Amino acid sequence: MVSHSALQGYLLEEALAWLLRSSGYRLLVHADQDPVELVDQGGDLRVRGRGALHQADVLGEFTFTPAFSMPVRLFVEAKYRKESCDLPMVRNAHGVVHDVNENYMTGSGTRPRQRYKYSYVLFSASGFTADAQKYALAHHISLVDLSGPTFDLLRGIIGTTGNTLDAAQKHLPETGSSRKKVFPVNWMRAMLRRHLGTAPSNLLPQPGSPGGEFDQKAGRALAEFAETLVRRSGSELLLGFPAAPFILPLATENYEKFIEFGAEQPDHKVRIRRDGTGVRAEWKLSPAEAPDAYELTFKLPEQIEDWIGEVADEEISRAVKVKKQFLSEITLYRMNGASPRVYQLRYEPGSLSRMRGDA
């Protein structure tokens, strides 16, 4: 059987694949989408590396190709556990992305083929250790902390569904000579991707279901999970790309407000305020000329927040330095139907403020 935390991690990965689709990523689910780079092995999708094949539970391809670069693909891994993600997890991510980016040979008679720039992002419901953060910043592995109050709703939905699936495992039939109960992970992923529409239906695998009472209980829980996500689609995770070695998950209670404002002013100035201190600090971003038009919330890596709050008398000045160095311009990409849109959010100097009660 599968551990409770692993079940929640699978749910989080599929939820993120659904949430990120509007940020310009399409899900790769089958080797037919790229027979050269991708391999189907035992029902799992794997990416060819220079030295090995690497499993990709969630693999996205970015709609946009950056100037003077290659098409971008993204490994998505999610951890839903009590402990913070540690260094070995980030080190594994670096090993995977380094190996797949090295998988290219040249020579006489070598057939030219498409190349991709692979990146890796780790999402964690419990944050990351200090060593993991330092290593990730050094090797450009993106870490996204989902432990803040902004993501309470998402964690709550995943927690409830994870509990139901965990309880349903006792109804799994025993298989094989060892008479073990094997949770059908591929079946669960296919069910969710079908409900959420995150992958082409003709390419989705058709794994057999265990049947019986497990099928009824787990199938109903997955359908309700997908329905809840869709119903709450007014809350969407937007990805912001600053001039920094990390990405910003920008949360909002109503993304339509941002889309409406961005349709009129895709390139506009913003102001930012910092709410709280240390690792609990959250940053709130809004248009400089119309602060009530929309609000986006994000967190910075803990290592950066630790540096900001290291000396109390310098907290404000250090926050301003981080703002000018890393957050002066944030780019967002989003699909508007079949058409891509680009938004530029530019920091207006002097707009950084702190809410009353900050230390």
Outline the structure in words:
This protein has 359 residues and is an alpha+beta fold. 33% of the residues lie in helices and 26% in strands. The chain has 9 helices and 18 strands. Strands 11, 12, 13, 14, 15, 16, 17 and 18 form an 8-stranded mixed β-sheet that branches. A 5-stranded mixed β-sheet has the order 1-5-6-7-8. Strands 2-3-4 form a 3-stranded antiparallel β-sheet, with helices on one face. A hairpin with a 2-residue loop joins strand 2 (38-41) and strand 3 (44-48). It is globular and about 70 Å long. The termini are far apart. The relative contact order is 0.12.
Secondary structure: elements and pairs:
Layout: H1 4-20, E1 25-28, E2 38-41, E3 44-48, E4 53-55, E5 58-62, E6 72-79, H2 87-101, E7 117-124, H3 130-139, E8 142-145, H4 152-168, E9 174-175, E10 180-181, H5 185-196, H6 212-231, E11 236-242, E12 248-252, H7 255-264, E13 267-275, E14 282-287, E15 296-298, H8 302-308, H9 315-326, E16 329-336, E17 339-347, E18 353-354
Parallel strand pairs: 6-7, 7-8, 13-17, 13-18
Antiparallel strand pairs: 1-5, 2-3, 3-4, 5-6, 9-10, 11-12, 11-16, 13-14, 14-15, 16-17
Helix pairs in contact: 1-4, 1-5, 2-3, 4-6, 5-6
